[in-house]
Design goal:
CATH topology of the largest domain in chain A: Aldehyde Dehydrogenase, Chain A, domain 1
Number of domains of chain A: 2
Oligomer: homodimer
Low-confidence stretches of chain A: none
Distance between the termini of chain A: 56 Å
Shape of chain A: globular
Largest interface: A-B, 79 and 79 residues
Number of strands of chain A: 23
Number of helices of chain A: 15
Helix content of chain A: 25-40%
Mean pLDDT of chain A: 96
CATH superfamily of the largest domain in chain A: Aldehyde Dehydrogenase, Chain A, domain 1
Largest sheet of chain A: 7 strands, mixed
CATH class of the largest domain in chain A: Alpha Beta
Chain lengths: 530, 530
């Protein structure tokens, strides 16, 4: 496996000689093969200029070609899947099946967006026809649709080396909409990033996509990311990561001379509400599902359930006992990065010191744990203590969760009302529980992007209806989603044309509807020619 | 005409005794009858709490009832139209036909949104059905739709005392989506605001809309507006006004502990490109249309054409002569407020002092001009000078425009490339001009929300396809529109439901599709039952 270790600037390599760094194996703590060179301000500027220049062309490239490009990227990723998985395993210590799944998910995402733009109706074309005879003034012909927004910067995420990184959902949706993308690679998996970056570059060449539609920048530190979001030619940013980093970038985007939209997915504790009937019916089953969910990927998922509301029922003791047993029996996990491990261990130590929290169970370290190991932990508190300590609702990134025991329905409702924005909330409920929970659902729907019933929030389905978003601080813009086909709407803007003859309009708006898309004509949805 | 002069807090009146103020007649400079009391921090807090409480109910009120409410507001406005127009004429000095038109437009807007929510498809319902047999993991049932965002603050605009004020487009779209609205009345037309506010309050009572879905706050200064956008229970803001005020509010929204979306429509110079063929064919016709457009409403429209790119042709002299004649013959205008008049007069004086600008024509004051009078003015410069002085592209709010003479196509293109975001751009072009202007259109489409051919940008049609938006600094969020039915999308957010039985879902997502709306089911648009 060979890496140039240089940033990808369109069809060329980065020229600057910034700090050199290596990927670190989370399993051994040792550097992995391959040297990577941090980009510098000139590389950032080159990438942005190439992107802006490419935008003028790429924004008019027919959807059919953009779809071919996305499929070519998927095809090239699949063709190097084995190499990619090997390297990603070394860089992240994530297990092979998980990374195999992530390759599949990444390619499915690319193909989903290819399909969405090829079908074409996503642009939301609307046509209001003229009425020259209207009194007191003639009605003009007005037609609107979504257009791409301009160069988009995407930050690779540490916890999804493929599906939320170089050719992940942000990149796929931005490219699909017709925008160039500049990716800032996550320094924890530069080799994986380089391999995927090369696949995208080759696919660009193969499909005659203009130079600059894709660039990939390496940086050990935060300078390149900061320079990118402040570059005047950049028009939007997609980010998945920590709350602190997300908030800093959000402020940077809002403070630019020209503020730009920032789509950051930042943190979430994903409360789970176990209702009394469900606890009575299937305490142990819920305990097992919950353990699987909060320890999946070492708890390093943004949808990890970190708060579980537990009712007082005769079966609650069995639920707690089962969950405690499972936690004690968990093997040690290897965390993605030293920073994540450190934050997790500090959070666990801190929680152990909180008087109103009780450590119910913790996994035991085995003899030869990897340097970046972490242990699953299960804490417990009561509703009143939880309500008095809002920081207990903050995300702990890693394999820990907190049971909050409630003894009255009103306590549970009060906790629900006090939540900030989260990505998800989950109800475990019987049919009877559910009939009495309309008020709870109604509170939660204003707090989250996804409400689940009798499931677990990890495992985010990539589909048309998925909403992976939620009110601040879960995301920076609670109106959007970063997963699923609706993610494309983040990187597009409305434009209308008034008084243009059909032949001068984009195909989506022509009378003959040559693309055969769904349109709103004079207020009615139709695929008809007009 | 009697006003309590107090803010409207749900079904009650404001209690605080802030600074008292009067509306000032722009025609006489004298105070008009009616005392208005500025709200204070307690009134702001009351309005926000009432709104948050009302949201819990109103967000679940069926669309049919919300539509009835919007129609009741329109009906009540029509029933007091004469009183309203009289008062608005006194407060704004706008002519009767304009205000009659604005009453019509305001009511049409309310009814358009009523129709949109009654039809119901605007929520963009999507259903991805489960596949329990899918390998390697079962596919869950996921269904998404738009939900209202929460209490919305709307700032009344000085230049549209009805259509962009208390029950204007921002209010109508926010209420339609299911959000409570708190309006900050513009202090230049408090009486008009009070009358409309009372109409909304009465319509709320009539339709059994919960208290707090609508409040209206008066303030002579900026304290109430500032407190509103900083109130933690407020979830979004709609604003139409000056760039300075818009930018300040935009910063305030972004700097809150919980940042919220801000939809500000701030300033635009609306460039007009006259292409050579069009100038040759109809120089005088364009001159006449342009004069009508840039002096309409005393040039106090956000879509006023403030820059006109003029080619060198044999007919250009006739164009300039005609336009100059029309400007010299314009009667004096009465401006809306002392502040607007002062800014306009300063801008004209300043432009007269710029060496590279030439005053081509100015209207002559008649004997007895009103105190807030302003005179139409026509300036001219050349392409090079324009390119060297970017401030010439800034909005001058009032009846002035600037001709920019270009002698080469490349100059015109360079000017187009250098524009910031505007609401509109207009081409005057023959068929032949247009065939050669694809590159110009392609630049402009990235700079504006609406591109017009052979028309004039003033007169914004309220319809499904209208886009009254545009990249920063024209608006704070170039992905949105503040006019037309797509304005509703600003005040809604995506939510999805996973694994819920049909009967526990909102009607929009139930299998039986009881509302008969268009939905995307497994990727296909349909109104079918599933």
């Amino acid at each position: 496996m060979q890496f140039s270790g240089r940033s990808i600037l369109g069809f060329h390599d980065g020229q600057e000689s910034g700090e050199v760094f290596h990927a670190i194996s989370p399993s051994t703590g040792e550097p992995l093969p391959g040297e990577f060179t941090s980009a510098g301000p000139r590389d950032v500027d080159t990438a942005a200029r190439l992107a802006a220049k490419a935008f003028a062309t790429y924004s008019h490239v027919p959807a059919k070609i953009r779809a071919e490009f996305l499929r070519a990227v998927a095809g090239r990723i699949e063709s190097i899947a084995e190499t990619l998985i090997e390297r990603a395993m070394q860089e992240t210590a994530l297990p092979r099946p998980r990374l195999q799944g992530e390759v599949g998910r990444t390619c499915n995402q690319l193909r989903l967006f290819a399909q969405v733009i090829e079908e074409g109706s996503w642009v939301g074309a609307r046509i209001d026809r003229a009425d020259p005879a209207r009194q007191p003034a003639p009605k003009p012909d007005i037609r609107s649709m979504l257009h791409p927004i301009g160069p988009v910067v995407v930050f690779g995420a540490s916890n999804f080396p493929l599906a939320f990184s170089v050719a992940g959902g942000d990149t796929a949706s931005a490219l699909a909409a017709g925008n160039p993308v500049i990716v800032k690679a996550h320094p924890a998996h530069p080799g994986t990033s380089a391999l995927v970056g090369e696949a995208v570059r080759e696919a660009s060449r193969e499909c005659h996509i203009p130079e600059g539609v894709f660039s990939l920048l390496f940086d050990k530190g935060i300078e390149v990311g900061t320079a990118l979001v402040n570059h005047p030619l950049v028009k939007a940013v997609g980010f998945t990561g920590s709350r602190a980093a997300g908030q800093a970038l959000m402020r940077a985007c809002a403070s630019r001379p020209e503020p730009i939209p920032f789509f950051g997915e930042m943190s979430s504790t994903n409360p789970v509400f176990v209702l009394p009937g469900a606890m009575r019916e299937r305490a142990e089953q819920i305990a097992a599902g919950l353990h699987g969910s909060f320890t999946l990927g070492a708890g390093q998922f943004c949808t990890k359930p970190g708060i579980v509301l537990v009712p007082e029922t005769p079966q609650t003791a069995a639920f707690v006992a089962k969950l405690s047993d499972l936690v004690r029996g968990s093997a040690a996990f290897t965390m993605l990065t030293p920073g994540i491990r450190k934050s997790y261990c500090s959070a666990v130590v801190e929680r152990k010191s909180v008087g109103t929290l009780r450590l119910l169970a913790e996994a035991q370290p085995s003899r030869d744990v990897p340097p970046l190991h972490a242990l699953a932990a299960l804490f417990e508190t009561d509703a009143q203590s939880f309500l008095h300590n809002p920081s207990l609702a903050d995300e702990v990134f890693g394999p820990a969760t907190l049971l909050v025991r409630y003894s009255t329905r009103e306590q549970m409702m009060e906790i629900a009302r006090n939540f900030e924005g989260h990505l998800t909330a989950t109800l475990h409920a019987t049919d009877e529980d559910l009939r009495g929970a309309a008020d709870l659902s109604s509170i939660l729907v204003d707090k989250v992007g996804r409400l689940l019933l009798n499931g677990f929030p990890t495992g985010v389905e990539v589909c048309h209806a998925m909403v992976h978003g939620g009110p601040y601080p879960a995301t920076s813009d609670g109106r959007s989603t970063s997963v699923g086909s609706q993610a494309i709407f983040r990187f597009a803007r409305l434009v209308c044309y008034q008084g243009f003859p059909s032949e001068a309009l984009p195909d989506e708006l022509k009378d003959a509807n040559p693309l055969g898309i769904w349109r709103m004509v004079d207020g009615n949805f139709t695929r008809d020619v007009i």
